[in-house]
Amino acid sequence: MQSITKWFTLLLGLAVVPTYSAILMKPINDPDLAYSGELLSGTYNQQITHPDTLLGFPIGSRVADPAQIHSAVMHWAEQSDRLHVVEYARTHEGRPLIAAFISTPALLSELDTIKSNIDKLANPLNTSDSQASNIIDSLPAVAWMAYSIHGNETSGADAALTAIYHLIASEDKDVEALLDDMVVVIDPMMNPDGRARFAKSLEQYRGTAPNVDDQSLLHRGDWPYGRTNHYFFDLNRDFFYLTQPETVGRVEMINDWRPQLMIDGHEMGSQDTYLMGPPRQPLNQNIDPNLQKWAKTFARDQSAAFDEKGWRYYTGEWFENWYPGYSNYSEYRGTMHILYEQSRMAEDGVRRPEGTVQTYIESVHHQFISTLANLKTLDKNSKAMYQDYWQGRKNNVASKGKFANRTYVIMANDNIGRTDALVSRLLAQDIKVYITDKDMEVDEATTHLGDVKEDIVIPKGSIVVPNRQAEAPLIAAIMEFDAGVNNAVLLEERQKTLRDGSSLMYDTTAWNLTMMYGLESVTVSEHLTSNMSPYKPSTHTHTLLDNAIAWMVDGADDRSVAFAARLMERGIHVRYIDRESEFENTVFNRGSIAVTVTDNPNTENLASLIKQTADELMVSVIATTSGFGEGELPEWGGKHFDLLTRPQVAILSHGNMSSYDVGATWYSIDANLGIRHSQIDVNSLNRTDLRRYNVIVLPTSYGALDKSKQALLDEWVNNGGTLIAHGRSAAALAGKDGIANVKTIENSFEKALDYDISLNREYMANLNKVDTKAAMSHTLNADFAFPWDDLPKPLKEEELTRRDKWLSHFMPSGAMVAGRTDQQHWLTAGTPEVLPLLYSNQPLLMSADNSEAVVRAGVFSPSPNKKKGDSESKKNADRWFTLPQDKALKVRMSGLLWPEAQQRIANTAYLTRERSGKGQIILFSGQPNFRGAALGTNRLLLNAIVYGPGLGSQENVSL
Q1: How far apart are CA 141 and CA 137, in angstroms?
Q2: CA gyration radius for the chain?
Q3: Which of 17, 121, 342, 759 is 20 to 30 Å from 163 at the Cα level?
Q4: Where is each Peptidase M14 domain found (predicted)?
């Protein structure tokens, strides 16, 4: 028996495999992994605990997890009078985010005074030149050093821990001298949730021997990987959208301190070297040019520090500063910003192309030396940088400056929740916002569509943001309709596109807040100051009435969708009003929500539940004692009051699904609706009982669903389910063998004429004219013609395919397209007629008579070429569609959208809906909740999720 046990032990390797703790503590003896550099050197205060002791391993040899980093910093805060720690936020998972203020005890005792003086220097309207000069003389340098905003880019946070210890414990004279003149703020790990996820994967995939293969799971981790936060958001794209708590807290503190220098420690491809500033073109034209001057100064000193140690590096090359949503947003407030990009590796290091192995501790050392080099440069140049900062702030408010005569106006609207949300983002950035007290007329204004209109009336209640403010560069960067780009950049981008399909653009080229939020806005070419008051957040009120027969929430407000969803979750029956209505002198927009006593006869405290839900959402409820519709408007017992069905929602996740879009969808449901839902692993779809759900959301993916999974979803839809798909997942369903009737553009050319006829039918259905004489004639009209009689003969399928392939080369990295919405469709409730749509290199959808094109790309406008006497015949656009002779089509709103891309995108469908059996398929061409900030298109998604089961399906899924 003993021999059998021994045999099994040997077979399983239990006799030779060390325990897990032994693996963790196993010394690395591989000579290739040896590193001769010394991370910490010099004389240190022995009263400050060495980080190796706190961590249990040599600092920089392993990845310190969030708990270890936080514990070490808090421990040092009790030991050192050079360190003051502030918690500025908590993550979704409850982990603290901290800022470590490091300086001399004297300066740390004066932090409030220092911050007050910085605030005075930032306000040129209340501070004179002489006062500014005195403030500059007294101010220490202020640096904000931030690390590892991407959780799997770990070396920055370990370098931050090293830097904190070095600065608080070093007894070297150069460190003491540095702190005599400077307050250093270290944000050691900007994404604790993501770091915790990656640190856990390291524990899971460590082996007995060092693994230097950067393709292994040890280096890459698991879906959704450690880059993002709890909701899979890239926090380095959120600095002005402010959707996540990490960003909200961080931005508030950075804005309070207005540091002279902000660094952001990242990692990049494992086979790369080290990138540092300054960035290359395109550069956002709103950034103070003086900052580019200082960027070169810092780069020279940082590169010299690397040269001294023989470390390879480069500046710029692939990093540009056009999109303002990175951490470099601080540049728009006058801060010098530097990006670090260290080649990424896990603890064992990575074998490089030249055959050497770069160790993890070497990566940490690179980040640490960069930190010290930048601090030394700041120390030398702080006073001169303050002088430039002061001059820049004065230029921002100058009456003849570049920002002097420009005002952004958000037109008054009924979407109070969304408008308040946008304004809250502006106020968080110290931007002054006003509201008009009465109607006011301006000489001219430019619309989202680029039209310059004269004698525009700005209605009472509109939001006004003058650009002539201290924060003018940031205001312009996030509010201007088009970010300027110079001709040289456009030329190089065009050449790259044609040569090999590459791009200068690192991110989206359109990000305007009012377009992302889907709110009508204009730019006025003057500095508006009269007939307006400082903005105050709206308040919600209720009229509940003891004798009410129904309670309403206006459908223009996005919160009305959540109101309906939460009440249904609580067992309340809810109705959707599909057209504008009026009860007891109160007008309600299309899509309003009604709760009636007759639908809920057995519900106790109905009014109290309604009030509770409305209070949670801070939305107003209005009661009515009559169901009679004023004029020709609908009554409460007619067909326009549709009874909704409670959504039971699943999101397909993991596998090839995009974690960004999964997270954005998950976040949208949690943050906007607050109702229960489930994430389902797409890999186990065949083993999932789909009858539990009546809504399934399929986020965009990196690979198509196989035929068996599509067949399973097809059966579920036909039994009454609402299937919602985004981006490439929508393309899979709309592919040649997909389950949808909608097709992608490349699969549509065989029936190009049918799609053109359907497009013209939609156009004709919206015409406000009719031939009364012909309609009432008793005689057969011999001149009658079909709409397609005047259409040009379609190009052959082969030619359309060839043209589409050519045009596809020019698809954008992110641009705003004008969308026209079907204002009678339930999916568009709460959206304007013209809705900005963010398009990137995404699939294009084609909808004909067997489906509904709810939102299309392009907005009709009068043709600039129409002459008197022109006929109403159609004109060919050299594509699959034709345009009426008297119409032009506006496509581009903002961003880089080549003419070829406009031609390809024009008239395709952004959002489609089709019936399939008892259920429906809803397809989005792109990602409707892009970065949690595209609130305009996100409303379409919320409508689909909450209203779909009741309005688009014939009956419930069998549960």
Answers
A1: 11
A2: 31
A3: 121
A4: 77-243
- Quickly count: other Cβ atoms within 10 Å of residue 270's Cβ: 21
Q: Residues 908, 851: contact at Cβ < 8 Å?
A: no
Dist. CA 35–CA 32, nearest whole Å = 8
Residue among 432, 473, 52, 412 nearest 289 (CA): 473
pLDDT score for 878: 67
Q: How confident is the model at residue 10 (pLDDT cuts 50, 70, 90)?
A: very low
Q: Which residue has the higher pLDDT, 33 or 25?
A: 33
Contact 549, 596 (CB under 8 A): yes
| pLDDT above 80 (res 361) | yes
Calpha distance 294→313 (Å, rounded): 19
Indicate the pLDDT class of residue 955, thresholds 50, 70 and 90: low
- The answer to whether residue 19 scores a pLDDT higher than 50 is no
Helix axes 245-257, 111-121, angle to 10 degrees: 80
Q: Compute CA 583 distance to the chain's CA centroid, rounded to the nearest angstrom.
A: 39
Q: How far apart are CA 925 and CA 730, in angstroms?
A: 7
217 vs 202: CA distance, rounded Å:
8
Non-local CB neighbours of 342 within 8 Å, separated by 6+ positions = 153, 155, 156, 265, 266, 267, 268, 274, 363, 366, 367
d(CA 812, CA 814): 5
Distances (CA, A) of 18 to 21, 22, 25, 62, 208: 8, 6, 11, 19, 8
Long-range contacts of 394-397, Cβ-Cβ distance < 8 Å, separation of 24 or more: 394/124, 395/288, 396/124, 396/468, 396/469, 396/470, 396/471, 396/472, 396/473, 397/124, 397/125, 397/468, 397/469, 397/470, 397/472
* Residue 175 pLDDT: 97
Other beta carbons within 10 angstroms of residue 849's beta carbon come to 12
Please give the structure tokens belonging to residue 464. 């006004």
Q: Mapping DSSP to helix (H, G, I), strand (E, B) and coil, where does residue 304 land?
A: helix
710 vs 704: CA distance, rounded Å? 9
Between CA 794 and CA 413 the distance in angstroms is 43
Distance between CA atoms of 383 and 757, rounded to whole angstroms?
68
Domains of the chain: 12-48+58-89+97-105+112-121+136-396 (3.40.630.10), 407-534 (no CATH), 542-643 (3.30.70), 649-769+789-951 (3.40.50.880)
Q: 788 pLDDT exceeds 90?
A: no
**Residue 632 CB-density burial (10 A; 0-12 exposed, 13-18 middle, 19+ buried):** exposed
Beta bridge partners of 576: 593, 642
- Spatial neighbors of 312 by CB under 8 A, at least 6 apart, are 273, 274, 306
CA gap 535, 770 in Å, rounded: 46
Other Cβ atoms within 10 Å of 762 Cβ, number:
17
Query: What are 409's strand-pairing partners?
Result: 464, 522
Q: How far is 524 from 460, CA to CA, in rounded Å? A: 16
Which of 302-311, 340-349, 857-866 reaches the highest mean pLDDT?
A: 302-311
Of 681, 683, 653, the C-alpha closest to 665 is 653
pLDDT reported for residue 31 = 58
Bond from prior residue into 51 cis (ω within 30 degrees of 0):
no
Cis geometry, peptide bond prior to residue 224 (ω within 30 degrees of 0) = yes
74-78, 390-394, 430-434, 501-505, range with the lowest pLDDT: 501-505
User: CA-CA distance, 496 to 791, in Å (whole number)?
Assistant: 37
Looking at residue 6, what is its pLDDT? 41
